[in-house]
Amino acid sequence: MSEKFAVGFDGSDAAKRALEFAIGRAKAQGGSVVLIHVLEWSPYSFLTPSELEERHKRRQEELDRAETALMKPVLKEIKDSGVSVETIIKYGHIADTLNEVAGANGATQIVIGRNGHSNLSSRVFGSVAGSLVQTSSVPCTIVP
Amino acid sequence: MNSMFNRAAVAAAALSFASAPAFAQSIDQKINDAFAGSTGWFVSFIFSPFPGTSFPWIVAWLVIAATVFTLYFGLIQLKGFSHAISLVKGDYSDPNDAGEVSHFQALATALSGTVGLGNIAGVAVAISIGGPGATFWMILAGLMGMASKFTECTLGVKYRNEYPDGTVSGGPMYYLTKGFAERGLPGGKILAVMFSVFCILGALGGGNMFQANQAHAQITNVVGDYPGVITGVIFAVVVFAVIVGGLKSIARVTEKVVPFMAIVYVVTALVILAINFDKIGWAFGQIFEGAFTGLGVAGGMVGALIQGFKRAAFSSEAGVGFAAIAHSAVRTKEPITEGYVSLLEPFIDTVVICTMTALVIIITGQLMIDPATGNYLLNEAGSAIATVDGNGGVALTSAAFSSAFGGFKYILALAVILFAFSTMISWSYYGLKAWTFLFGESNGSQLFFKVLFCVFVVIGASASLGPVIDFSDAAIFAMAVVNVFGLYFLMPIVKRELQGYLDRLKSGEIKKFGTPAE
């Protein structure tokens, strides 16, 4: 069975390093890459009435923007490198959603970048990498 | 001419209030008199009693409606309660729809338009006029009202307009028009127009003037008396900045702080009840006894009943139709699911929050009791129960909470200002929806309504409690006349939706999704 690397991608430098790492591995082992972008979202947040009215429209705009501004530019590079790739954009809690989507798409590994917070804020609020390591159902690689 | 004079005077008063408070006070009085004079006929029509009794026909209208819906849908508020909780938790939401408006969000937004001063000030008014017994009738009406809300919110989602750009608009004006047309009934359009007219009046009254008025009362309670026009102008400027200037950040902050304040309010009430746990039995005794005897209040049992029903209707707005506007934005394939979720709205608003206010006022002994008879003492005018410090409205609630926690009046003042503000923002939106339904979506017509809305903030803060509370009640009940009339004709549609949904729920066609997304 060939490896399928789920890459959590948000366009940051760390995410790009994670993507490069995954591409390198996929090439060497003949695997593929699933590029996943999660838009932070809680169904329990509070919105004003006019935000409710426009939510469906805004969601479509946000998805389109993620597709064109985030995914498109790197998609070409990956394809040029000869690794097969698919993209998924989802709403939700970042770590949980990454884990779910990776599982649902048969990924055998999750690769994410390290965002470099080691200070108070990640102690208080936690970090994506931290929660993913705790909950991931497949091996998880964090690229510094 | 007259309005120009008033506007100039308001501006002058705002600038020079420190040096000329007496002048500003007389402006308050003028606005007040003009207001009472021009709206009195409307108020007396809506609240006119059945001939030979003191029972207003409008109260009977709402109670009968809530009873009909309760029976027609087979006690849906009891049977559907746990399913409603399940829906709000997202158990039945498709994870692929994440990022759309969830049931929770629709409910929370609708609630932030309902939970407001009615829960704090309105209950105090009801208790001081109708006695503790009003609480019993308020809870009963709140429970029954859940069925009315279920009916109107299901229809709100079913007949909403979805525009090509992805935005949605819903509410009674849409279901009255489309629902009547679908059933082949005439007159839907006329009802929709009538509803919209009353909706605009209600938005300007209960959603605006009452809020500004009580916010001012609360501020003076903390910082001392000063002319209402000043509060009015300040509020109007901030509201203007949000609804005309598009300052969404203010609205967003309020939306987030309001639920927090509501929780603080309920928790504080629970703590006060816990401290006085030995009196809880007595308080419920007063509520039950007062419900059937009145315990000496003006109008006896009927007086208590009218006050309780009025407050429940005004606070939860069940049957009024407003809530259907906010609820209709939810993303769901099943309109009935939002009906279920909306059941919780009168429950949280009336059965939980209003009852907390009532219990705290009763338990902290704010109402004066004649030791000889055990009945409540009336004030000099004989219109309401005498209170320890002569307080009424929001000041009474404030006194009740402060008697347990001295500093609470500052927290309450902040809560009242925020509740008032978020309610105004919500209702400016509801009123605008009715306005554009009548006058079109053009920018000019929208701007006109928004400016008008701000002007009414100033009027509301200046008028004294009586005329404002009467007018806002009357406008809101007038909406209920039209809405409930329409609901009777449309309820078979809701029944069909309910039956179809329950069948599919039973057959397993509709089932919970594995694990709800966090």
From TrEMBL, chain A:
Question: Do you know which InterPro entries this protein is assigned to?
Answer: Rossmann-like_a/b/a_fold, Universal_stress_UspA, UspA
Q: What are the UspA domain coordinates in residue numbering?
A: 1-144
CDD domains in the cross-refs = USP-like (cd00293)
Q: Which Pfam families match?
A: Usp
Q: Which PANTHER family match?
A: STRESS RESPONSE PROTEIN NHAX, UNIVERSAL STRESS PROTEIN UP12
Instruction: Give the UniProt family note.
Output: Belongs to the universal stress protein A family.
Q: What is this protein called?
A: Universal stress protein UspG
Organism, scientific name: Cognatishimia activa
